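Posting for a labmate who doesn't have an account.
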Amino acid sequence: MALPARVRADACPGVFATHDAADGALARVRLPGGRLSASQARVLASCAEELGDGSLHLTSRGNIQLRGLSRTGELVPRLSSAGLLPAPPHERVRNYLASPLSGLTGGLVDVRETVAELDRAVCARPELAGLPGRFLFALDDGRGDVSGEDADVCWRALDSSTGAVLLAGRDTGERVPFDGAVGALVRKALWFTEVRGSAWRVRELDLPGGSRLPASPGVPVGPFTRDDGRAGVCGAPVLGQLAAADLRALGEIVVTPWRSVVVPLGVHAPGLVTDPDAPGLGVSACIGRPGCAKSRADVRADARAVMRRTPAGVRMHFSGCERRCGRPHEAHIDMLAGTEEYQKGTP
C-alpha cells in the first residue's frame, strides 16, 4: 500500500544548498560508489580543517558530510577543482551505492567502472536532475551486500553476465545483461519521475510486492587479502567521524554504507578501528546536541560511555529525537533520548 503523500519540500542537503544546523552549515558531498582518490581526500580534509569542524562525517549512503561550515562560498570552487562536483544541476541526486570490495576481492563482476558510467548517464539526462535528494541507485556485484540496503533502483549480478533489477529492494523479475545495467537503472529512474507524484522513494508507491533476494552483511572490519594477493583493510571510525588528518593519511579509500572505510592498499589505517572484536563496534549515533537543535541529549557522549561495555556483536543506535537520523537498516537496539531504555543506558 502506498504511504501518505509528502506534505513538505525535499530539503536533502548538498554542497550548493547546505543545511543550517545548530553547529553551522552542513554540506553533503556525494561520492559515487563511495570512491575517493587520494587527491580528493586531501581536498576534503583541507575543507574540513579550514572551513568546518575538522572532521569528516560518514553517512549511511557512502557519502561524506562536512559540518560546522562558516564560509560555504569557498566550498564549491575547492570541490569543483577536485572533480567532486562534475554536474551541478544533478549534484543532490548523485546517490550511488556499489559493492565496496568489488574489483578487489570476491563478487561475480567488477562494478567500479559501471558506477562511473551510471553517473555519466544520469547526469546526461536533464529530467533526472529533478529526482528527490533521497533517491538511491545501487550496483551489487553479486555478493548481496548493497542490494540489501533497499535502494530505489538496483542491479544485482546473478552470474558473470546477467543480473536482476530490483525496486525498493524487491526483485521485479526483470533480468538484464551486465552491459545493460546502466540503461535499465536510468529507465527505472525516468519512470519514477513520471509516476512519483509527491513520493520521495519508490517504496512509497503502491507497487506489487516482489521477493527479496538473499542478502549478505556489509564489509567486515579487519584486514583482507585482495584477489591479486596484496593486502587491504576495512576499518570504522568511532561513531562514523573521521579526523581530517587521518583522512589525509589514508589516501585512496572507499566509504561504505555502513560508516566504515575500505583502504584498498596496505593495512595502515589511522583513525579507524580495525579489530573486529573491539567493544562498541556496533554502536552508532546521530549528531545529537550541540550540533542539532532538535536533539534532547548529547547522544554521542552517551554512546561513547556505553561503547566500553558493549560487545562487538551488539548493534545499537542512539537517537536524539523521533527522526532517528542515521539509524541502521539491520536489526538494532533503539536508544531514543527521553525514553526509559535510554535512561538505563545498558546494551
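Reply:
Got it, the C-alpha cells are right above this. DSSP finds seven helices and 18 strands in the chain.
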